[in-house]
Amino acid sequence: MLNIKIKLMQKSDLDSVISIEQKAYGPHHWSKESFMSELTSELARYFSVFNENNELVGYCGCWQILEEAHITNIAVTPEYRRNYIGEALLTTIINECYKNMVKYITLEVRVGNKSAISLYEKYGFKSLGVRKGYYQDNNEDALIMWTENIFYDKFKSGYEKNITALRGKINIL
Q1: pTM, rounded to two decimals
Q2: How many structural domains does the chain have?
Q3: Is 108 annotated in the active site?
Q4: Residue 130's CATH number
Q5: Do 7 and 16 meet the contact criterion of CB atoms below 8 Å apart?
Q6: Per-residue pLDDT reduced to its tens digit, 88-97
Q7: Parent domain of 31
């Protein structure tokens, strides 16, 4: 079982974050300056995930505005994909929303990113629209996905079931 640590993102993480960002998103990725700005924003929450060798292998972020959170990115280095790290990052954001009394979570995802869409649907996100030509690199559409109120029993019971299953697949230290 893979052991990982998830911590608040630090400025010292940004070179590794940018490396993953380039691999994940190609030439239309965020700049180091964009991440620096996010780390100083009171609305932003960003996390880095490290493997057993203390190498940064993924990150995620969101904005929290009143009762809503907007997931800005979740990315995992290619060598560590399909190891439940993206799912662990998603649950970190959801836990942060619970902690801060944020009720609703939204995001955009490429219509062609079936594995990400499947993960989001597993955690109760539903597609509520499309942003045409949202992605600059290839003009691909984005699904707009939302959760229901995460404090509702239906969401919480599904979330708890998923968290229990996740704990059997990856060890979050």
Answers
A1: 0.94
A2: 1
A3: yes
A4: 3.40.630.30
A5: no
A6: 999 999 999 9
A7: 2-172
